[in-house]
């Protein structure tokens, strides 16, 4: 067993798959709004010898020896997260977005407690109370929805539901909602009904860090986010919170823990074992990048590109949910094109054209999540590649052709030529073969 074997010689099968995946990513237009291209430096940190370490516990309170450097690493990751988002407390150990949310529920709710979340069909996440998810099975979830006409959230409606249902926690945040979220209004409702407010900014963390979306940090009790979406870091998540438990006397009168301590002990030992120190190193690298002025330019361009893509699509007679976008994502409503329930067909046709998107439900979806009537697109990845408004026009034209053709194979093949020509002008990871 040679520890120094390179993957090309030790495992040609996997090595070949990595190369083929690199080519796929390089040649395609990546429009899945939860995906991004991370920095090479992030991949180097994630692939580093920190993979080998166990460090259950928190900095300077570990169960194993040999953690001097890991303590330094995790402390720096926490400091950078606090500086980037301006939060009072940060826990950088959650493995991913779903476990981060699970940890918050575990910290603040008892089994069967009621919380209020955004309807999955209209833009919420599985972990915001879907009946097939732990969040819907372990807790009692009631949901708020968008207005059927404007397809946007109406905070007065959210408020009325909160007053009627008296949830213990209210969740704000999105996975498929193309509009801004008013975290301040959510907080006011939460305070009015004595509920905790958890903001899940997994999708928009990069926009928040880049200053182009309102931050929930001054308002929400707890904020969770993944690090691999618009934030452009490694796959993982963090939890941020205030120190003080605003509802201590009401819900945790028997506990000596403040909010930060409740969250920390829910992550470890409540839910997880040892942190993934290699990924935490990569999170720290990504936070450092997001602290640079260039990241503001990036986040601004993500939103500009989404606006340009949305306007061009609408000019080509494509219907968008809520008729536009304020953030990084766009939801196409294909019903006016006679494609109700044909999300899968068009997703495949776009795939054949080299455009990667995901089929998605539209608000009040008449079909099913497997065969929905919408298509979700986003601009974080193409913006990381350096594409701007003029490239959005080429992409919009391709998408419109594929949709209007109702998935015709010849049309997809023709659009594919334009896409290959476009992506060839934006090399991804120049010079990279297998990560070295
Ligand atoms: C992506 C996402 C998650 C889940 O993150 P995973 O890393 O896939 O577990 C949770 N909440 C929201 C709002 C998301 O967009």
What labels would you give this structure?
binds pyridoxal-5'-phosphate, 2 domains, 14 strands, globular, Aspartate Aminotransferase, domain 1, 3-stranded antiparallel sheet, 436 residues, 7-stranded mixed sheet, amino-acid biosynthesis, Aspartate Aminotransferase, domain 2, alpha/beta, 43% helix, transferase, single chain
Could you characterize what this model shows?
With 436 residues, the protein is of the alpha/beta class. The chain has 2 domains: 49-290, Aspartate Aminotransferase, domain 2 (3-Layer(aba) Sandwich); 296-423, Alpha-Beta Complex (Aspartate Aminotransferase, domain 1). 43% of the residues lie in helices and 12% in strands. It contains 17 helices and 14 strands. The protein has helices spanning 7-10, 12-27, 40-46, 68-85, 97-108, 134-138, 155-165, 183-192, 205-209, 248-251, 259-271, 277-290, 293-315, 343-352, 380-384, 389-404, 409-424, and strands spanning 29-30, 57-58, 61-62, 89-91, 114-118, 140-144, 169-173, 196-200, 222-226, 237-241, 329-333, 355-356, 358-360, 374-378. A 7-stranded mixed β-sheet has the order 4-10-9-8-7-5-6, with helices on both faces. Strands 11-14-13 form a 3-stranded antiparallel β-sheet. The chain has a two-stranded parallel sheet with strand order 1-12. β8, α9 (205-209) and β9 (222-226) form a beta-alpha-beta unit. α4 packs parallel to α12 (277-290) and α16 packs antiparallel against α17. The chain is globular and about 65 Å long. The mean pLDDT is 96. It binds pyridoxal-5'-phosphate. Residues 34, 96-98, 101, 125, 127, 173, 175, 200, 202-203, 226, 237 line the site of pyridoxal-5'-phosphate.
